[in-house]
Amino acid sequence: MVVLLMGGAFYLGRIAVDVPPQTIRFYETNIADCVSATTGTIALGKPIVWAGLGDSYSAGVGGAVNGAPFGQDPTNSFAVQAAGLFRARETGLRIEMDLSACSGAVIGELFQRRADDGTWQPLRAGNGLSRTDDQLWYSLPDPLKPMRKADIITLTIGGNDAGFGNVASSLYDTTKNGCHRLGRCTLLADGGLANAADDKPNRRFKATTHDEEWSELRDRLMHAYEVVGELMKPSAHMYIVEYPIPFAIPHGRCRVATLVGARNMGYINRFGVKLGQVIRDAAAASRAALRARGITAQIDVIPWNGVELTSTTTKFIPGEPIAYNPHGLCGTDPVVLDIAPITPGRVLVDSFHPSSAGSLRAACATAKAVYDTYPDIQFRYELRATGCPTD
Fold first, then answer.
1. Is the pLDDT of residue 237 over 50?
2. N- to C-terminal Cα distance for the chain?
3. Which domains does the chain have, with CATH numbers?
């Protein structure tokens, strides 16, 4: 795999997979706001273009310890790895990855457009959007622009809106409200979103009840998916990837279980499961809304592990069955990184981000879904899943 990315606080890159250097397409960026970038292009032939959109779970945060900002490494991106699992059946074919995911991205920040007066306004589906409108594409944030030419789009979004970053921070809250073993994990105990009082405006919700919070998040996601469905090519296919469930069944030999406690591990898993359900509901609602406007958009949802986690245990919270991830923390080959201080070289934002094993699982699940549902790739490429986990 050949990778060419030029520095910056976030990775915004175009990557050519398994091709000679002269076919690389790339972004050059020095931004920190997920809005603008300059581009350079060198390409030959007609590739399949794959756009990796979204937040840090797509950007490559996690994996092996490295010195990059936020620990980002594009080779740890599940989307890049998924594209690398395909091999062209003919000489000269290739898959080009437009990796434009941004760490910390939220729906309102990503799905917006610059108005004539220079202000950023929400991007709404069904409001005169047209994929043939050059002025519209010019007004979009750069991280959305790759989907115009994309054949395959992968997307992770919604985790920051729901407050997953606050969950990681709460583990270091030493008060009685924190999510450490002796804390009450106030952030998640009530079953709502993990919002904090100091969240930025684009992460806040108007809802006043927990159920309404989740419904508001569902609506945000639905509108975002609709926007992609309206603007992507009619032949394109979008794959929405859920977030990993962090914990396996707790046991005393697991250090993170000792630090966090079984009950709080249960709260965090319960939150992750609910987020996954809301993502699936939003995707279904977006497909229905698009069909009502005469648009048949190919939109699929992929669980991070490749299968929905349905097995439950009451070992987190007695009397409350909660799903667990056999490949979560305290399990085998954990798909997420441990709490940062446990691993030398880690920082707070690394917590719960994909491990190398986790990125591989998501890559394999995504590649299989693409191969099974995107006809063009079946004729032009073969899927080589050697090294993919089988459990």
1. yes
2. 27
3. 13-379 (3.40.50.1110)
